[in-house]
Design goal:
37 helices; 686 residues; 66% helix; mainly alpha; elongated
């Protein structure tokens, strides 16, 4: 049976649509089988289709070999090869093919130049791009608006901003792709206001815009936090019927998410008649960015039920949500899905995995995820460094920082890196090293210290007992201290018993964050611990007078896919009798081992025995007792608390870790505590 060339060409196009190299090779075999002595070579028409198929299916060697076997190579032949290599990211190879085409005496056309410009732009080769521009002028191709648009995009991506603007102004006719390129590149180049101005100019010139235009403009609005302007575009989109465009709706979800308008992006998502993978990914990311981690996980589960396959962007967002919730088991489930989808070694997913395991207190899994990533970027290294610092592995954190800054890796620390390493120095008590790093930030790393760095230094000095020196450092700061800075000082005053200085820090915090009950509670407890009950009660009365309510303390633990939540003196759990028996047993074992309750944090001036009862039934102790009953021996017990763990609970859990021989990981609203063999990773400062 013989097939016509047109039919064979259509089959080759089908193999491209189906992404099937096997089908393409089978058709190639059929073409070779149909050759005869009178026609021993493949027709140029079919050769072009075969080269196009092989190059776009990312089989560059087969495509190049076939080109060499083609006796008559036209501009279509070469352009098919070059466009396929560019499409698959082989930019250097595509420029090599372009040079070979020129040596072959074939002149590029208006389809060849755009892909060559794209290759030079992606490789950040401005000189090559300028040479290509010269060729287009010489060949008279610059009058073509697509060639001009590609040249403009190349200049933007290679950093030649003035040349790009000059070329844009010289264009006699600009199509919508050119305007889109200008707006998009302005946003990518960190110049959102320029993008907004160009969009307004485009509208005044009579341009309507398309999905790409609107999405680029929304990105500019979110970068400038211009909610009003973005809402105006939303109105325009509705007025002219673009709300049905799924890409525009996705852009609106992303915009409202970055502007912290939860109700608005939920409204846009709910009104979409059709949703794609990006829609679900954008929702998960928007929830995560707005500290709605539970909703981010729920939208991910809903997407899975709808048959949506996980992508690197979606999985990264959900893993960040799991990290925020300290949801280790859910994070592991998402990790399994990523592995099933073969994206777990993607640098973005891999970095999110490292971050998630670090923030969930599983440093072993954190290290495994780090080493499994083939190509690591600075975010990956920062995630591991942050994991070490947060969990108190300060020696490992400082060793990793030394490795990062060695000449072999060619990594340049950024703002986040130095926050992590200063935090590690703080937890290690390495004041001298920390101050050396802080003072060398500008000269050695060319980074201007920010408020987070100053907060780390304040915490570092305070942890070392240099509370007054820490206060003097705050007074000399060139920038205004924020909640983190004063909070670090207040925490140090609590630990070292400095009520007067604690009052100064607390009063600053009352002004900066008047609705945070935690600062009032810490000051009240500080006075109570010093025996100054009148002042402690006065602080609490002030809280009542101005309507500030202390957040209800609760602790929770996950067992067999269920989350069990406990409050202080909680007796509502179904296993309450077993929990009370375990608490009694622990209390007896601890007293036998020499444990003495720390009742300084008891909230009221009552008898000592009542104080002991008060602190013994805190929520974290009840959650721990349940964990000892419900979890098999040897399994680490992971507890999360919404407030900071109290002094007595911290001491008690240290004792219990040694008595029961279990690893206990407690995450409060301040940091991780990893208890093992009567020791805590925080080194008793928290």
């Amino acid at each position: 049976m013989s097939f016509t060339p047109n039919f064979l060409a259509s089959l080759l196009q089908s193999s491209l649509s189906l992404h099937s190299p096997l089908l393409g090779k089978s058709i190639h075999a059929q073409i070779l089988k149909s050759l005869s002595p009178s026609t021993p070579t493949i027709q140029p028409f079919l050769s072009n289709h075969l080269i196009n198929m092989y190059s776009k299916l990312d089989l560059p060697n087969s495509a190049h070999l076939l080109l060499q076997l083609t006796p008559t190579r036209s501009v279509v032949t070469w352009t098919s090869l070059i466009s396929g290599t560019v499409q698959n990211g082989h930019f250097s190879l595509s420029l090599t093919h372009f040079s070979s085409m020129r040596r072959d005496g074939v002149n590029p056309n208006d389809f060849t130049f755009p892909v060559a410009f794209k290759a030079s732009g992606c490789l950040r080769l401005p000189v090559t791009g300028q040479q290509l521009h010269g060729l287009t002028i010489k060949d008279g191709q610059m009058i073509d608006e697509y060639v001009g648009c590609s040249a403009f995009d190349m200049y933007c991506k290679t950093g030649l901003r003035d040349d790009a603007c000059k070329l844009f102004d010289e264009m006699s006719h600009r199509n919508i792709a050119t305007w889109n390129a200008y707006i998009s590149n302005s946003v990518l180049d960190g110049r959102p206001y320029s993008g907004i101005a160009k969009f307004i100019e485009f509208r005044r010139s009579g341009g309507g815009g398309d999905g790409i235009t609107f999405c680029a403009f929304l990105n500019a609005c979110s970068d400038t936090s211009d909610l009003l302007l973005g809402r105006q575009l939303h109105g325009y989109v509705i007025r002219y019927g673009y709300e049905a465009d799924v890409s525009v709706a996705n852009g609106l979800i992303d915009f409202y998410g970055k502007c912290h308008e939860i109700g608005c992006f939920e409204f846009v998502f709910g009104g979409m008649s059709s949703r794609n993978n990006v829609s679900w990914s954008s929702m998960a990311a928007a929830y995560e960015q707005n500290d709605e981690q539970e909703k981010a996980c729920l939208i991910f589960l809903k997407a899975r039920k709808e048959g949506i396959e996980p992508t690197d962007y979606m999985v990264s967002s959900v893993l960040s949500a799991c990290a925020g919730l300290a949801g280790l088991e859910l994070g592991r489930s998402v990790h399994a899905l990523a592995a099933k989808a073969c994206i777990e070694k993607n640098v973005f997913v891999g970095s999110a995995l490292v971050d998630m395991y670090g923030k969930c207190g599983s440093i072993d899994d954190c290290e495994i995820a780090f080493h499994e990533i083939g190509e690591k970027n600075l975010v990956t290294w920062n995630a591991l460094l942050g994991g070490y610092a947060h969990q108190g592995h300060v020696d490992m954190a400082l060793a990793l920082f030394q490795e990062m800054t060695c000449d072999r890796l060619e990594l340049r620390p950024n703002y986040v890196t130095l926050v992590c390493v200063l935090s590690a120095c703080s937890r290690a008590g390495e004041v001298k090293m920390g101050m050396e790093i802080f003072e060398s930030m500008r000269e050695k790393y060319e980074i201007v210290p920010g408020i987070e760095h100053y907060a780390c230094v304040v915490d570092m000095l305070a942890r070392a007992g240099k509370v007054e020196e820490s206060y003097e450092f705050i007074r000399r700061m060139p920038i205004r201290p924020n909640v983190s800075v004063w909070g670090a000082l207040l925490g140090a005053c609590r630990v070292y018993g400095k009520p007067e200085l604690g009052r100064v820090a607390a009063e600053k915090l009352f002004v900066l964050d008047p609705h945070d009950s935690g600062n009032h509670v810490v000051l009240s407890n500080l006075f109570a611990a010093s025996g100054r009950w009148e002042e402690a009660n006065l602080v609490r009365k002030e809280m009542q007078d101005i309507g500030i309510k202390k957040g209800v303390g609760c602790s929770w633990i996950s067992v067999k896919n269920s989350v069990h939540v406990f409050q202080a003196k909680d007796t509502s759990h179904a296993m309450n009798s077993e929990i009370q028996k375990m608490l009694t047993k622990l209390k007896m074992d601890m007293k036998a081992a020499g444990y003495v309750p720390d009742t300084k944090q008891a909230l009221y001036d009552v008898e000592e025995e009542e104080k002991e009862t008060e602190v013994w039934y805190h929520s974290e102790k009840i959650a721990l007792a349940f964990g000892l009953i419900a979890l098999p021996p040897g399994v680490p017990i992971r507890i999360t608390k919404n407030l900071r763990v109290c002094v007595d609970c911290h001491s008690a859990i240290k004792f219990i870790s040694g008595i029961v021989g279990r690893e206990i990981i407690l995450r409060d609203n301040h940091r991780f505590h990893r208890f093992r063999d009567n020791q805590c990773s925080c080194r008793d400062y928290w």
